[in-house]
Protein backbone atom coordinates (compact mmCIF):
# COMPACT_ATOMS: atom_id res chain seq x y z
CA UNK A 1 0.00 0.00 0.00
CA UNK A 2 2.89 2.35 0.76
CA UNK A 3 4.40 1.68 -2.66
CA UNK A 4 1.03 2.38 -4.29
CA UNK A 5 0.63 5.64 -2.38
CA UNK A 6 4.14 6.84 -3.17
CA UNK A 7 3.95 5.89 -6.85
CA UNK A 8 0.47 7.34 -7.32
CA UNK A 9 1.45 10.55 -5.48
CA UNK A 10 4.45 11.04 -7.77
CA UNK A 11 2.41 10.26 -10.86
CA UNK A 12 -0.56 12.45 -9.93
CA UNK A 13 1.77 15.22 -8.76
CA UNK A 14 3.58 15.16 -12.09
CA UNK A 15 0.33 15.28 -14.05
CA UNK A 16 -1.01 18.06 -11.81
CA UNK A 17 2.10 20.13 -12.40
CA UNK A 18 1.88 19.64 -16.16
CA UNK A 19 -1.83 20.49 -16.27
CA UNK A 20 -1.45 23.58 -14.09
CA UNK A 21 1.52 24.75 -16.16
CA UNK A 22 -0.44 24.16 -19.35
CA UNK A 23 -3.44 26.13 -18.07
CA UNK A 24 -1.19 29.02 -17.01
CA UNK A 25 0.52 28.99 -20.39
CA UNK A 26 -2.81 29.04 -22.24
CA UNK A 27 -4.10 31.96 -20.16
CA UNK A 28 -0.89 33.92 -20.66
CA UNK A 29 -0.79 33.21 -24.39
CA UNK A 30 -4.40 34.38 -24.69
CA UNK A 31 -3.57 37.59 -22.84
CA UNK A 32 -0.46 38.13 -24.99
CA UNK A 33 -2.43 37.60 -28.22
CA UNK A 34 -5.15 40.07 -27.18
CA UNK A 35 -2.70 42.73 -26.01
CA UNK A 36 -0.49 42.33 -29.08
CA UNK A 37 -3.45 42.91 -31.35
CA UNK A 38 -4.42 46.03 -29.43
CA UNK A 39 -0.83 47.27 -29.43
CA UNK A 40 -0.56 46.79 -33.19
CA UNK A 41 -3.80 48.67 -33.92
CA UNK A 42 -2.96 51.34 -31.33
CA UNK A 43 0.47 51.90 -32.87
CA UNK A 44 -1.10 52.34 -36.33
CA UNK A 45 -3.60 54.83 -34.99
CA UNK A 46 -0.94 56.80 -33.09
CA UNK A 47 1.32 56.88 -36.20
CA UNK A 48 -1.47 58.46 -38.23
CA UNK A 49 -2.13 61.09 -35.58
CA UNK A 50 1.46 62.27 -35.29
CA UNK A 51 2.34 61.91 -38.97
CA UNK A 52 1.54 65.61 -39.59
CA UNK A 53 4.31 66.85 -37.32
CA UNK A 54 7.84 67.25 -38.61
CA UNK A 55 9.53 68.51 -35.42
CA UNK A 56 9.13 67.35 -31.81
CA UNK A 57 9.04 71.02 -30.67
CA UNK A 58 5.76 71.79 -32.41
CA UNK A 59 3.15 73.14 -30.03
CA UNK A 60 0.26 70.90 -31.05
CA UNK A 61 2.24 67.66 -30.84
CA UNK A 62 1.87 67.24 -27.06
CA UNK A 63 -1.87 67.84 -27.27
CA UNK A 64 -2.17 65.29 -30.06
CA UNK A 65 -0.28 62.73 -27.99
CA UNK A 66 -2.55 63.40 -24.98
CA UNK A 67 -5.63 62.94 -27.11
CA UNK A 68 -4.27 59.77 -28.70
CA UNK A 69 -3.52 58.22 -25.28
CA UNK A 70 -6.98 59.11 -23.99
CA UNK A 71 -8.59 57.73 -27.13
CA UNK A 72 -6.68 54.47 -26.97
CA UNK A 73 -7.50 54.07 -23.28
CA UNK A 74 -11.11 55.03 -23.85
CA UNK A 75 -11.36 52.52 -26.66
CA UNK A 76 -10.79 49.72 -24.24
CA UNK A 77 -14.17 48.07 -23.57
CA UNK A 78 -12.81 46.96 -20.13
CA UNK A 79 -11.44 50.31 -19.13
CA UNK A 80 -12.22 49.64 -15.46
CA UNK A 81 -10.07 46.51 -15.53
CA UNK A 82 -6.91 48.51 -14.85
CA UNK A 83 -5.31 48.65 -18.31
CA UNK A 84 -2.85 51.53 -18.58
CA UNK A 85 -1.86 53.09 -21.96
CA UNK A 86 1.32 55.15 -22.13
CA UNK A 87 3.25 57.00 -24.86
CA UNK A 88 6.84 57.96 -24.20
CA UNK A 89 9.62 59.56 -26.26
CA UNK A 90 12.94 58.45 -24.86
CA UNK A 91 14.80 60.16 -27.69
CA UNK A 92 13.14 63.54 -26.96
CA UNK A 93 12.63 63.69 -23.21
CA UNK A 94 12.82 67.53 -23.13
CA UNK A 95 10.34 68.11 -25.94
CA UNK A 96 7.76 65.36 -25.43
CA UNK A 97 6.44 64.43 -22.01
CA UNK A 98 5.23 60.91 -21.09
CA UNK A 99 1.46 60.63 -21.12
CA UNK A 100 -0.57 57.76 -19.49
CA UNK A 101 -4.26 57.02 -19.23
CA UNK A 102 -5.32 56.63 -16.54
CA UNK A 103 -2.60 58.73 -14.94
CA UNK A 104 0.13 56.60 -13.32
CA UNK A 105 3.89 56.41 -12.94
CA UNK A 106 4.85 53.57 -15.30
CA UNK A 107 8.61 54.15 -15.32
CA UNK A 108 9.25 51.41 -12.75
CA UNK A 109 7.40 48.83 -14.81
CA UNK A 110 9.21 49.52 -18.09
CA UNK A 111 12.60 47.90 -17.80
CA UNK A 112 15.72 49.10 -19.64
CA UNK A 113 15.76 45.85 -21.62
CA UNK A 114 12.25 46.46 -22.89
CA UNK A 115 13.10 50.09 -23.77
CA UNK A 116 16.18 48.90 -25.66
CA UNK A 117 14.10 46.40 -27.65
CA UNK A 118 11.53 49.03 -28.55
CA UNK A 119 14.30 51.47 -29.52
CA UNK A 120 15.54 48.85 -32.01
CA UNK A 121 12.15 48.94 -33.69
CA UNK A 122 10.81 45.67 -32.24
CA UNK A 123 7.51 44.83 -30.63
CA UNK A 124 8.39 43.29 -27.25
CA UNK A 125 6.77 42.36 -23.98
CA UNK A 126 7.61 41.60 -20.36
CA UNK A 127 5.82 40.51 -17.22
CA UNK A 128 6.52 42.86 -14.34
CA UNK A 129 5.13 43.30 -10.82
CA UNK A 130 4.62 46.75 -9.37
CA UNK A 131 2.24 49.32 -7.87
CA UNK A 132 0.21 51.61 -10.14
CA UNK A 133 -3.17 51.92 -8.48
CA UNK A 134 -2.41 50.94 -4.88
CA UNK A 135 -1.67 47.27 -4.31
CA UNK A 136 1.11 45.31 -5.94
CA UNK A 137 -0.07 43.73 -9.19
CA UNK A 138 1.46 41.62 -11.92
CA UNK A 139 1.33 43.35 -15.32
CA UNK A 140 1.89 42.24 -18.88
CA UNK A 141 3.84 45.16 -20.36
CA UNK A 142 3.68 45.30 -24.16
CA UNK A 143 5.53 47.96 -26.17
CA UNK A 144 5.69 48.98 -29.82
CA UNK A 145 7.58 51.70 -31.69
CA UNK A 146 5.48 54.44 -33.33
CA UNK A 147 7.24 55.94 -36.40
CA UNK A 148 7.01 59.72 -37.05
CA UNK A 149 8.50 62.16 -39.54
CA UNK A 150 11.02 63.35 -36.97
CA UNK A 151 11.90 59.93 -35.47
CA UNK A 152 10.23 57.45 -33.18
CA UNK A 153 8.05 57.45 -30.07
CA UNK A 154 6.98 54.44 -27.99
CA UNK A 155 3.50 53.11 -27.22
CA UNK A 156 3.03 50.85 -24.15
CA UNK A 157 0.08 48.80 -22.93
CA UNK A 158 0.20 47.68 -19.27
CA UNK A 159 -2.44 44.98 -18.77
CA UNK A 160 -2.98 43.58 -15.23
CA UNK A 161 -2.89 39.79 -15.01
CA UNK A 162 -4.88 39.51 -11.81
CA UNK A 163 -7.83 37.79 -13.49
CA UNK A 164 -5.50 35.29 -15.16
CA UNK A 165 -3.71 34.65 -11.86
CA UNK A 166 -7.00 33.99 -10.11
CA UNK A 167 -8.11 31.65 -12.88
CA UNK A 168 -4.77 29.81 -12.82
CA UNK A 169 -4.88 29.55 -9.00
CA UNK A 170 -8.42 28.13 -9.17
CA UNK A 171 -7.28 25.64 -11.79
CA UNK A 172 -4.29 24.60 -9.70
CA UNK A 173 -6.44 24.19 -6.61
CA UNK A 174 -8.92 22.08 -8.56
CA UNK A 175 -6.15 19.90 -9.98
CA UNK A 176 -4.51 19.48 -6.55
CA UNK A 177 -7.82 18.61 -4.88
CA UNK A 178 -8.61 16.13 -7.63
CA UNK A 179 -5.11 14.62 -7.33
CA UNK A 180 -5.35 14.28 -3.54
CA UNK A 181 -8.77 12.66 -3.84
CA UNK A 182 -7.42 10.30 -6.49
CA UNK A 183 -4.40 9.37 -4.35
CA UNK A 184 -6.63 8.71 -1.33
CA UNK A 185 -8.94 6.59 -3.48
CA UNK A 186 -5.96 4.63 -4.84
CA UNK A 187 -4.67 4.15 -1.29
CA UNK A 188 -8.04 2.80 -0.14
CA UNK A 189 -8.21 0.49 -3.13
CA UNK A 190 -4.65 -0.69 -2.49
CA UNK A 191 -5.46 -1.31 1.18
CA UNK A 192 -8.57 -3.26 0.24
CA UNK A 193 -6.79 -5.38 -2.37
CA UNK A 194 -3.82 -5.90 -0.06
CA UNK A 195 -6.09 -7.02 2.75
CA UNK A 196 -7.94 -9.39 0.45
CA UNK A 197 -4.64 -10.92 -0.67
CA UNK A 198 -2.60 -10.77 2.55
CA UNK A 199 -5.22 -11.99 5.01
CA UNK A 200 -5.42 -15.51 3.49
CA UNK A 201 -1.62 -15.62 3.42
CA UNK A 202 -1.49 -14.65 7.09
CA UNK A 203 -4.10 -17.27 7.91
CA UNK A 204 -2.01 -19.82 6.00
CA UNK A 205 1.11 -18.75 7.93
CA UNK A 206 -0.66 -19.09 11.29
CA UNK A 207 -2.08 -22.45 10.28
CA UNK A 208 1.39 -23.62 9.17
CA UNK A 209 2.83 -22.52 12.54
CA UNK A 210 0.17 -24.51 14.39
CA UNK A 211 0.85 -27.50 12.17
CA UNK A 212 4.59 -27.24 12.89
CA UNK A 213 3.75 -27.11 16.61
CA UNK A 214 2.07 -30.51 16.32
CA UNK A 215 -1.59 -29.48 15.90
CA UNK A 216 -2.15 -31.62 12.85
CA UNK A 217 -5.92 -31.05 12.72
CA UNK A 218 -5.61 -27.36 11.78
CA UNK A 219 -7.13 -26.36 8.42
CA UNK A 220 -7.86 -23.19 6.44
CA UNK A 221 -11.36 -21.99 5.59
CA UNK A 222 -12.10 -22.22 1.85
CA UNK A 223 -14.35 -19.42 0.50
CA UNK A 224 -15.25 -19.01 -3.16
CA UNK A 225 -13.49 -20.41 -6.20
CA UNK A 226 -10.72 -17.90 -6.87
CA UNK A 227 -6.98 -18.42 -6.70
CA UNK A 228 -6.88 -17.83 -2.95
CA UNK A 229 -9.56 -20.47 -2.46
CA UNK A 230 -7.47 -22.83 -4.60
CA UNK A 231 -4.46 -22.03 -2.40
CA UNK A 232 -6.45 -22.79 0.76
CA UNK A 233 -7.76 -26.04 -0.67
CA UNK A 234 -4.28 -27.12 -1.75
CA UNK A 235 -2.90 -26.19 1.69
CA UNK A 236 -5.60 -28.22 3.40
CA UNK A 237 -4.91 -31.19 1.15
CA UNK A 238 -1.19 -30.93 1.93
CA UNK A 239 -1.92 -30.76 5.66
CA UNK A 240 -4.19 -33.81 5.41
CA UNK A 241 -1.53 -35.79 3.57
CA UNK A 242 1.12 -34.74 6.09
CA UNK A 243 -1.12 -35.69 9.00
CA UNK A 244 -1.86 -39.07 7.47
CA UNK A 245 1.82 -39.71 6.77
CA UNK A 246 2.97 -38.56 10.21
CA UNK A 247 0.34 -40.66 11.95
CA UNK A 248 1.36 -43.66 9.86
CA UNK A 249 5.02 -43.10 10.71
CA UNK A 250 4.21 -42.66 14.40
CA UNK A 251 2.21 -45.88 14.35
CA UNK A 252 5.05 -47.70 12.59
CA UNK A 253 7.54 -46.29 15.10
CA UNK A 254 5.32 -47.33 17.99
CA UNK A 255 4.94 -50.81 16.59
CA UNK A 256 8.68 -51.02 15.98
CA UNK A 257 9.47 -49.95 19.54
CA UNK A 258 6.90 -52.39 20.89
CA UNK A 259 8.27 -55.14 18.69
CA UNK A 260 11.82 -54.45 19.88
CA UNK A 261 10.72 -54.43 23.50
CA UNK A 262 8.60 -57.56 23.14
CA UNK A 263 11.31 -59.44 21.29
CA UNK A 264 13.89 -58.41 23.88
CA UNK A 265 11.66 -59.60 26.70
CA UNK A 266 10.71 -62.82 24.93
CA UNK A 267 14.35 -63.64 24.25
CA UNK A 268 15.12 -63.54 27.95
CA UNK A 269 13.67 -66.98 28.64
CA UNK A 270 15.42 -68.96 25.85
CA UNK A 271 18.59 -66.98 26.48
CA UNK A 272 18.51 -67.98 30.15
CA UNK A 273 18.15 -71.63 29.16
CA UNK A 274 20.97 -71.38 26.63
CA UNK A 275 23.09 -69.54 29.21
CA UNK A 276 22.63 -72.34 31.74
CA UNK A 277 23.66 -74.96 29.19
CA UNK A 278 26.58 -72.87 27.96
CA UNK A 279 27.82 -72.28 31.52
CA UNK A 280 27.75 -76.00 32.12
CA UNK A 281 29.66 -76.72 28.91
CA UNK A 282 32.12 -73.86 29.64
CA UNK A 283 32.81 -75.22 33.12
CA UNK A 284 33.68 -78.66 31.72
CA UNK A 285 35.69 -77.38 28.73
CA UNK A 286 38.99 -78.72 30.11
CA UNK A 287 37.71 -82.27 29.59
CA UNK A 288 37.01 -81.69 25.88
CA UNK A 289 39.42 -81.75 23.01
CA UNK A 290 40.94 -78.34 22.11
CA UNK A 291 38.54 -77.64 19.20
CA UNK A 292 35.43 -78.25 21.32
CA UNK A 293 36.91 -76.30 24.22
CA UNK A 294 37.56 -73.33 21.93
CA UNK A 295 33.98 -73.54 20.66
CA UNK A 296 32.74 -73.45 24.27
CA UNK A 297 34.78 -70.27 24.90
CA UNK A 298 33.45 -68.63 21.75
CA UNK A 299 29.89 -69.60 22.72
CA UNK A 300 30.37 -68.07 26.16
CA UNK A 301 31.76 -64.80 24.71
CA UNK A 302 28.96 -64.46 22.16
CA UNK A 303 26.34 -65.16 24.83
CA UNK A 304 27.86 -62.38 26.94
CA UNK A 305 27.64 -60.04 23.96
CA UNK A 306 24.07 -61.23 23.23
CA UNK A 307 23.02 -60.43 26.80
CA UNK A 308 24.59 -56.99 26.57
CA UNK A 309 22.79 -56.38 23.29
CA UNK A 310 19.43 -57.37 24.79
CA UNK A 311 20.08 -55.09 27.75
CA UNK A 312 20.97 -52.20 25.45
CA UNK A 313 17.93 -52.83 23.24
CA UNK A 314 15.63 -52.74 26.27
CA UNK A 315 17.27 -49.50 27.43
CA UNK A 316 16.95 -47.93 23.97
CA UNK A 317 13.30 -48.97 23.80
CA UNK A 318 12.67 -47.23 27.14
CA UNK A 319 14.30 -44.06 25.84
CA UNK A 320 12.27 -44.22 22.61
CA UNK A 321 9.04 -44.76 24.51
CA UNK A 322 9.82 -41.90 26.91
CA UNK A 323 9.75 -44.15 29.96
CA UNK A 324 13.35 -43.57 31.08
CA UNK A 325 13.46 -42.09 34.59
CA UNK A 326 16.30 -40.24 36.30
CA UNK A 327 17.12 -41.18 39.88
CA UNK A 328 19.31 -38.24 40.93
CA UNK A 329 21.15 -38.08 44.22
CA UNK A 330 24.22 -36.20 45.50
CA UNK A 331 27.14 -38.28 44.27
CA UNK A 332 30.91 -37.99 44.55
CA UNK A 333 32.15 -38.59 40.99
CA UNK A 334 35.73 -39.42 41.98
CA UNK A 335 34.85 -42.94 43.26
CA UNK A 336 32.66 -43.41 40.17
CA UNK A 337 35.66 -42.76 37.93
CA UNK A 338 37.79 -45.16 40.01
CA UNK A 339 35.17 -47.92 39.74
CA UNK A 340 35.05 -47.55 35.95
CA UNK A 341 38.85 -47.67 35.70
CA UNK A 342 39.07 -50.70 38.01
CA UNK A 343 36.48 -52.54 35.93
CA UNK A 344 38.34 -51.89 32.67
CA UNK A 345 41.85 -52.36 34.04
CA UNK A 346 42.01 -55.95 32.79
CA UNK A 347 41.10 -54.93 29.23
CA UNK A 348 43.57 -52.01 29.31
CA UNK A 349 46.34 -54.31 30.51
CA UNK A 350 45.52 -56.88 27.83
CA UNK A 351 45.75 -54.36 24.96
CA UNK A 352 48.68 -52.48 26.48
CA UNK A 353 46.91 -49.11 27.02
CA UNK A 354 47.80 -47.25 30.27
CA UNK A 355 44.99 -45.22 31.85
CA UNK A 356 45.97 -41.89 33.41
CA UNK A 357 43.73 -40.03 35.85
CA UNK A 358 43.71 -36.27 36.36
CA UNK A 359 41.31 -35.84 39.29
CA UNK A 360 40.88 -33.14 41.92
CA UNK A 361 42.15 -33.93 45.40
CA UNK A 362 38.77 -33.07 46.93
CA UNK A 363 35.37 -34.74 46.41
CA UNK A 364 33.39 -33.64 43.34
CA UNK A 365 29.73 -33.67 44.38
CA UNK A 366 26.91 -33.39 41.84
CA UNK A 367 23.23 -34.35 41.76
CA UNK A 368 23.30 -37.15 39.17
CA UNK A 369 22.12 -40.71 38.64
CA UNK A 370 25.31 -42.64 39.52
CA UNK A 371 24.25 -45.77 37.61
CA UNK A 372 23.77 -43.86 34.36
CA UNK A 373 26.92 -41.74 34.78
CA UNK A 374 28.96 -44.88 35.44
CA UNK A 375 27.50 -46.48 32.33
CA UNK A 376 28.41 -43.42 30.23
CA UNK A 377 31.97 -43.41 31.54
CA UNK A 378 32.27 -47.15 31.03
CA UNK A 379 31.31 -46.74 27.37
CA UNK A 380 33.65 -43.76 26.83
CA UNK A 381 36.65 -45.33 28.54
CA UNK A 382 36.03 -48.70 26.89
CA UNK A 383 35.96 -47.06 23.45
CA UNK A 384 39.12 -45.06 24.26
CA UNK A 385 40.96 -48.22 25.34
CA UNK A 386 39.68 -50.05 22.27
CA UNK A 387 41.05 -47.34 19.95
CA UNK A 388 44.03 -46.28 22.07
CA UNK A 389 46.69 -47.87 19.83
CA UNK A 390 48.76 -48.82 22.92
CA UNK A 391 49.03 -45.15 23.92
CA UNK A 392 47.85 -43.58 27.19
CA UNK A 393 44.20 -42.73 27.81
CA UNK A 394 43.70 -39.64 29.99
CA UNK A 395 40.57 -39.17 32.12
CA UNK A 396 40.11 -35.63 33.48
CA UNK A 397 37.49 -34.46 35.97
CA UNK A 398 36.65 -30.78 36.43
CA UNK A 399 34.05 -28.72 38.30
CA UNK A 400 32.91 -25.12 38.59
CA UNK A 401 29.98 -23.32 40.23
CA UNK A 402 27.31 -24.70 37.90
CA UNK A 403 28.60 -27.84 36.17
CA UNK A 404 30.90 -30.84 36.32
CA UNK A 405 32.72 -32.26 33.31
CA UNK A 406 34.66 -35.43 32.53
CA UNK A 407 36.87 -35.78 29.46
CA UNK A 408 38.25 -39.05 28.09
CA UNK A 409 41.26 -38.53 25.81
CA UNK A 410 42.88 -41.18 23.66
CA UNK A 411 45.77 -40.90 21.19
CA UNK A 412 44.63 -43.42 18.61
CA UNK A 413 43.72 -43.03 14.95
CA UNK A 414 41.27 -40.21 15.73
CA UNK A 415 38.17 -39.12 13.83
CA UNK A 416 37.78 -37.72 10.36
CA UNK A 417 35.97 -34.46 9.66
CA UNK A 418 32.25 -34.91 10.33
CA UNK A 419 32.60 -38.21 12.18
CA UNK A 420 32.32 -36.48 15.56
CA UNK A 421 28.58 -36.19 14.80
CA UNK A 422 28.22 -39.78 13.56
CA UNK A 423 29.79 -41.56 16.51
CA UNK A 424 26.53 -41.28 18.48
CA UNK A 425 24.45 -42.96 15.78
CA UNK A 426 23.20 -46.42 16.54
CA UNK A 427 25.40 -49.27 15.25
CA UNK A 428 27.80 -46.81 13.57
CA UNK A 429 31.48 -47.80 13.36
CA UNK A 430 34.31 -45.63 12.03
CA UNK A 431 36.09 -48.69 10.58
CA UNK A 432 33.78 -51.72 10.10
CA UNK A 433 36.76 -53.93 9.25
CA UNK A 434 38.51 -53.19 12.54
CA UNK A 435 38.73 -56.11 14.99
CA UNK A 436 37.09 -55.28 18.34
CA UNK A 437 38.57 -56.28 21.68
CA UNK A 438 35.43 -55.78 23.77
CA UNK A 439 32.76 -57.13 21.46
CA UNK A 440 30.53 -54.07 21.89
CA UNK A 441 26.91 -53.89 20.73
CA UNK A 442 27.16 -50.64 18.74
CA UNK A 443 24.58 -48.96 21.01
CA UNK A 444 26.83 -47.77 23.84
CA UNK A 445 27.40 -44.20 22.66
CA UNK A 446 23.76 -43.82 21.64
CA UNK A 447 22.64 -44.83 25.12
CA UNK A 448 25.31 -42.57 26.64
CA UNK A 449 24.00 -39.62 24.65
CA UNK A 450 20.46 -40.29 25.88
CA UNK A 451 21.72 -40.60 29.47
CA UNK A 452 23.46 -37.21 29.15
CA UNK A 453 20.31 -35.62 27.73
CA UNK A 454 18.22 -37.14 30.51
CA UNK A 455 20.46 -35.29 32.99
CA UNK A 456 20.09 -32.07 30.97
CA UNK A 457 23.76 -32.29 30.02
CA UNK A 458 26.00 -32.55 26.96
CA UNK A 459 27.99 -35.38 25.45
CA UNK A 460 30.35 -34.11 22.76
CA UNK A 461 33.19 -35.54 20.70
CA UNK A 462 36.33 -34.12 19.09
CA UNK A 463 38.85 -35.92 16.92
CA UNK A 464 41.46 -35.42 14.24
CA UNK A 465 43.24 -37.99 12.06
CA UNK A 466 46.46 -39.08 13.76
CA UNK A 467 45.76 -37.01 16.91
CA UNK A 468 43.27 -39.26 18.64
CA UNK A 469 39.90 -38.25 20.03
CA UNK A 470 38.40 -36.71 23.13
CA UNK A 471 34.88 -37.09 24.50
CA UNK A 472 33.48 -34.61 27.01
CA UNK A 473 30.55 -35.29 29.34
CA UNK A 474 29.16 -32.12 30.96
CA UNK A 475 26.42 -32.37 33.61
CA UNK A 476 24.73 -29.68 35.74
CA UNK A 477 25.95 -29.67 39.33
CA UNK A 478 22.35 -29.36 40.54
CA UNK A 479 19.59 -31.40 38.95
CA UNK A 480 17.32 -29.31 36.74
CA UNK A 481 19.80 -26.45 36.18
CA UNK A 482 20.50 -25.28 32.65
CA UNK A 483 24.02 -25.59 31.29
CA UNK A 484 25.73 -22.61 29.70
CA UNK A 485 29.43 -23.49 29.88
CA UNK A 486 31.65 -26.47 30.67
CA UNK A 487 34.55 -26.53 33.15
CA UNK A 488 36.77 -28.42 30.65
CA UNK A 489 37.59 -27.70 27.02
CA UNK A 490 36.37 -30.04 24.30
CA UNK A 491 39.53 -29.63 22.19
CA UNK A 492 42.52 -30.97 24.16
CA UNK A 493 45.45 -28.71 24.95
CA UNK A 494 47.93 -30.91 23.09
CA UNK A 495 45.96 -30.85 19.83
CA UNK A 496 47.79 -29.41 16.84
CA UNK A 497 46.12 -26.24 15.56
CA UNK A 498 45.30 -25.90 11.84
CA UNK A 499 48.12 -23.35 11.44
CA UNK A 500 50.63 -25.63 13.18
CA UNK A 501 51.13 -26.54 16.84
CA UNK A 502 54.18 -27.04 19.01
CA UNK A 503 56.95 -29.11 17.45
CA UNK A 504 58.77 -30.10 20.63
CA UNK A 505 56.09 -32.50 21.76
CA UNK A 506 54.97 -30.28 24.63
CA UNK A 507 51.27 -29.61 25.27
CA UNK A 508 49.72 -26.42 23.96
CA UNK A 509 47.94 -24.03 26.30
CA UNK A 510 45.44 -21.42 25.10
CA UNK A 511 44.37 -18.74 27.54
CA UNK A 512 44.31 -15.02 28.38
CA UNK A 513 47.60 -13.20 28.04
CA UNK A 514 48.78 -9.73 28.96
CA UNK A 515 46.13 -7.07 28.59
CA UNK A 516 43.36 -9.61 28.04
CA UNK A 517 44.71 -10.76 24.65
CA UNK A 518 44.64 -14.42 23.64
CA UNK A 519 47.94 -16.14 24.45
CA UNK A 520 49.08 -19.42 22.87
CA UNK A 521 52.10 -21.29 24.23
CA UNK A 522 53.38 -24.32 26.15
CA UNK A 523 51.15 -25.47 29.01
CA UNK A 524 52.44 -25.18 32.60
CA UNK A 525 53.93 -28.23 34.23
CA UNK A 526 51.37 -28.48 37.03
CA UNK A 527 47.96 -27.02 37.90
CA UNK A 528 47.47 -28.08 41.49
CA UNK A 529 45.56 -31.29 40.64
CA UNK A 530 46.53 -34.84 41.58
CA UNK A 531 47.54 -37.12 38.72
CA UNK A 532 47.46 -40.91 38.88
CA UNK A 533 48.74 -43.38 36.32
CA UNK A 534 47.32 -46.86 36.05
CA UNK A 535 48.38 -49.51 33.58
Automatic annotation (TrEMBL):
Q: Which CDD domains match?
A: HAMP, HATPase, HisKA
Tell me yes or no: is Oxidoreductase among this UniProt entry's keywords.
no
Question: Per the record's keyword annotation, is Membrane included, yes or no?
Answer: yes
Give compartment(s): Cell membrane
Q: Which InterPro entries match?
A: HAMP_dom, HATPase_C_sf, HATPase_dom, His_kinase_dom, HisK_dim/P_dom, HisK_dim/P_sf, MtrAB_MtrB, Sig_transdc_His_kin-like_C
Which UniProt key words apply to this protein? ATP-binding, Cell membrane, Kinase, Membrane, Nucleotide-binding, Phosphoprotein, Transferase, Transmembrane, Transmembrane helix, Two-component regulatory system
Q: Which residues form the Histidine kinase domain?
A: 262-479
Q: Which SUPFAM superfamilies match?
A: ATPase domain of HSP90 chaperone/DNA topoisomerase II/histidine kinase, HAMP domain-like, Homodimeric domain of signal transducing histidine kinase
Top EC class for this record: transferase
Name where it mostly resides: membrane
Q: Which reaction does it catalyse?
A: ATP + protein L-histidine = ADP + protein N-phospho-L-histidine
| Residue span, HAMP domain | 195-247
Question: GO CC annotations?
Answer: plasma membrane
Report a single Gene Ontology molecular function: phosphorelay sensor kinase activity
Give its E.C. classification number: 2.7.13.3
Q: Which SMART domains match?
A: HAMP, HATPase_c, HisKA
The record ties this protein, via PANTHER family, to: HYBRID SIGNAL TRANSDUCTION HISTIDINE KINASE C (PTHR43547:SF2), TWO-COMPONENT HISTIDINE KINASE (PTHR43547)
NCBIfam families in the record:
MtrAB_MtrB
Q: What is this protein called?
A: Sensor histidine kinase MtrB
Amino acid sequence: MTITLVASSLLVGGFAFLIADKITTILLDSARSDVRQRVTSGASYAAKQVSFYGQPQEAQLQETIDGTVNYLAGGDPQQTSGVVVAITADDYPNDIQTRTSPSANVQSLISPELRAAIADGKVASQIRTGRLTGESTKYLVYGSPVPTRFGQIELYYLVPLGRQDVTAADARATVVATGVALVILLGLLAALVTRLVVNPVRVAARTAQRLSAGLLDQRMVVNGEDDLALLAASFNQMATNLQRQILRLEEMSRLQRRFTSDVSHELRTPLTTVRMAADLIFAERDEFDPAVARSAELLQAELDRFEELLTDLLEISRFDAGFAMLDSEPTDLVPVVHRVVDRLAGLAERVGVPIELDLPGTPVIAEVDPRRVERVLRNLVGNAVEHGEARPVLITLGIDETAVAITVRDHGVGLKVGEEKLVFNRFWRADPSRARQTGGTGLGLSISLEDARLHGGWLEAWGAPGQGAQFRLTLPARAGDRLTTSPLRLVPADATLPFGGPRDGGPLAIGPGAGGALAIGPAPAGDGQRTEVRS
